[in-house]
Every structure is written in C-alpha cells, then in structure tokens.
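Hi Y.,

Following your request, here is the sequence exactly as I used it, all 546 residues.
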Amino acid sequence: MSDAANPTTDDLPTDDPQVRPARQRGFLGFVERAGNLLPDPVMIFVYLIGILMLISVVGSWLGWSASIAYDGEEAPQFGELASGVLTYTATSLFSEENISRLLTDMPRTLTGFAPLGLILVVIFGAAVADRVGLFSAIIRKSLRGAPKAILTPVVAVIGMVSHHASDAAYVVFIPLAGLIFAAVGRHPLAGIAAGFAAVSGGFAGNVTPGQLDVLLFGFTQEAARIVEPGWTMNPLGNWWFILAIVVIFTPIIWFITDRIVEPRLGKWGGTPDEELRAELAKSEVTPVENKGLRNAGLAALVVVAVWGALTLWPGYTRLINEEAGGTAGLQPFYQSLIAGFFFLFLLSGIAFGTGVGKVKGSNDVIAMMVDGVRTMAPYILFAFFAAHFVAMFNWSRLGPIAAINGAEVLKVMNLPAPVLLVTVQGFSSFLDLFIGSASAKWSAMAPVVVPMFMLLGISPEMTTAAYRMGDSYTNIMTPLMSYFPLILGFARRWDSSVGVGSLLALMLPYALTFMVVGFIMVGSWVYFDLPLGPGAEVHYSPKAHF
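Below is the corresponding structure, written out as tokens. Let me know if you'd prefer a different format.
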C-alpha cells in the first residue's frame, strides 16, 4: 500500500482494460467526451456575455418587451412603472448608455457583486480554521471513535457535515473512512464509497448552514432583486431542508453500503498490518490537538453567546427590528450571520492554533488569512466575469423579460409547483454532469429561474433548494467531477485494478437512489408546504402579479 497521490485524468493509464473501454462506451463515455470539450468556467461566461450582447441587439431591434401588474410603489431597477403596470423593454448592450456603463462602472460591477463580498468575508475566517488544522482534527476526532456496529451511519453523517471543511472533506475524510473500515475488518472500498457518497452525493445536506449557503444565496439575492429590489438573503433560508437531507440520506447510505456495495465487493482479504497501523496512528488526534479542540469549542460558545445576547438581551436587541415585527424584524439577525460565520471560524481557529502551537502571534493569523485569499484567486477571476454577465443581463432587460414571459407560459400550462421545481432540479442534475462548479451553474440559471418562479408564487429559497439538490447527487456519477481522479487514487491504494468504470459502478446505486429520493423530497416540500428554514417558506407573494 503506497501513499495516496492526487492523479489527474491524464495520469490514468490509457491501455488499462479496466479504464479505457469503460470511458469510451455508453452514456458515461459521452458525458466525459462532451465535458472535455467544455472550456474553463471563466471562458464559459466570456462566451455567454458575447452571446448575450448579440441577443440584446436582436431584442432591441425587434422591440421585445414584457409588462405585468405591479403593486409596489417603487419600480425594480431598469423597469418602468406607470399606472400600476411594470414594463421592461429590451435594450441593446451596444447602446451608448450601456457601453458607458460597462466601461465606467467596471470596478463597481465587481465590488457590488453580492456573492463575492459574502464568500470573501467567510473565507477570511475559514482560512485560519483550515490552516491551523481545526477542520482536519474535528473530522479525525469524530470518525476515530465510531463504534463498529454503527460505523456506516457515522461516516454518512460526518461526511455531510464535513462540507464546512471544504477540501479537507475529500483529502482527509474519504481516505480515512477507508482506513477505519479496513481496521475493523471491513472492505476499505466500502468505506471510501460511503464517504464519497456522503461528502459529494450528499453535498446539499448539512446539520448547519455554512459557506455553501452564503455563496448560493448571494446569487439568489442578485436574481430576486429583479422582481423585488429590497429582497435580502437569509443564510438560514434552507436550514430545515438541508437538515432533512442528512436525516433521510443517512439510512440510505447505511443500507446501500452494508447490503448492496459491500456484499458485491466480497470479504476483504487484508489484515491490519504494520503499515495500516502506522497510517491509523497518523490519524490519531494527539493530546495537544485535544487541547486545541477544547479551546476551539470554548471560543465557538463565546461567539454563539455574543450573538444570542445581541439578539435576545432585553433592551439591547441590536439584531432585531422590533418595529417591523415577524420575519421582517429578524432580517438584521439573518444579515449578521455572515459576520457570525466569520467570527466563529476565525476565533475557533485562533483558539485551536494557539493550543497546538501553530498560532504564536498576529502575524501567523494574518499570513493564514492572506493565504486563504490567495487560494480564492480563481474564484475572484470567475466572479469578475459572472458579475458582468448578471449585470449585463439586467442592463439589457432580457432577464426580467424572459422571467415574465416564461412565467406567463408556465401559468397557461398550469403546471403544479412541484413539477416546476423538479424540472429545475433535473436541469441542474444534467448540467452537473458537464460543469462541476455549483456557483457557475447557479450564477447563469438564477437570473431567469428565480424571478420567473417568484412571479409564479414560489419563493427564492425554495428555488435555491431545488437547484442545490439537483447539483449534488450527480457529482458521484461523472468522471468530470474535479475530485473524481483523487478518489480513484484512494481506491487504487487498496485495489490496483479499480478503474473509472469500477468506481462509477460502485457509486451508481447511491446516485440513482439519491436522485429518486431528491425528486420526491422537492415535490413533497412544495405539496405539503413545509417550512424551509427560519423565516423562509415555500410560497412567495409577489408585488407583480398576473
């Protein structure tokens, strides 16, 4: 058993009969070939901007427009309100006004892009927690003490919770799951499969909201303001939904791993030799790390206590708008959660780093924050083009025109809300086979589907929930997923004959089951009108109506 590598797709042996034939035939072969033809997400948005500019010329020349009754006193941006009717008229992006706006507002377009600021604030804190080893220690501490009888469900829950740890979920947790399975005499590939299914297939689920919620709701907010200028994101808007995913997916992973995957793999013939024991020893949480975890836990409690006091302390409810009342009164609290995540990650990371000796002064913390921003450079570049795509969509008025006309068509079709949302989920799943980035897909989809569904009475939170469900389970059934080669490398540590087709066959039972259950969950959530999170409901009452 050799050290795990991080192979790229190019590292896979082209003459391996277990790999090349599986990659060349069938639907998955088509997926890989088609996906490899796609450019980088940054270039996708460059091309989309070019196409958008051409369509705006056609729309302006043909006089495209859309009107809708509107109860609000103030028209949304770029809309024209007269006698209770809101009208959008297509405008060429080559017009003098739009060319001037593009060139003069370029810095403001980027800095005003909500997802960029939101995710950067959280990353400042998360970078410290990650680089001091807090996330890794939490994962190892949680998994090492798992009883053998319930090892699989423990792996499932920890895997879905580990999304907060970003890369550590893949690099630390999944290979560790294989090691733990092997240590108790179970097949290590079953452990890797269960870990991969939880981390990547259950990507939409978690116990608490985190960075992903902030990122996706940032795009949702930009899109929702096409219809309602004052709509503000709530990072807790999908909390009950993502928690339900953990509750429902955990027994599914348990059943498939123990009753389908592991019996198919057969009994593992290996034994916990010295090399395995050495690897397990490396994953032990040291006494120093235990001290750091205690410090981090205390720091987390302090942050939670401060936020609780700011919200509930009599006479000092700075995060509650008592005059607004109800859900609207909680908006300051919801908006403050971005800062809350920042302080939670930052102070817990500093406390852990101080305990383990990785933080000796402020310079260490600053260096970690700088390094965290450095790793965000590809995202910042992506955000530059995504921000301009979203902004230019609004400048051309094509976004609201498409949303209003699309909503009118769907209203005539009289499709039930569950069917509409399942369609969004299915489209998200299809795109996920080719484009791995959740933010890239949602930044392109949101400007149309969010306002369109708002006009049909479906809340932005529900549309986001349907998207994120569809974006998750296909991760484990496409070789284009960015971590797929890494997982393949982990599997080959235990069985050198494992190829792309082998790993896909291993994960397919999870993916197909998650897909069916995901469709049922999204449809049921709308049908039974279940709450999505604190202050977030399925339905929405738009000021614009038919």
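Strands lie at 65-70, 80-82, 85-89, 544-545.

Thanks again,
Q.
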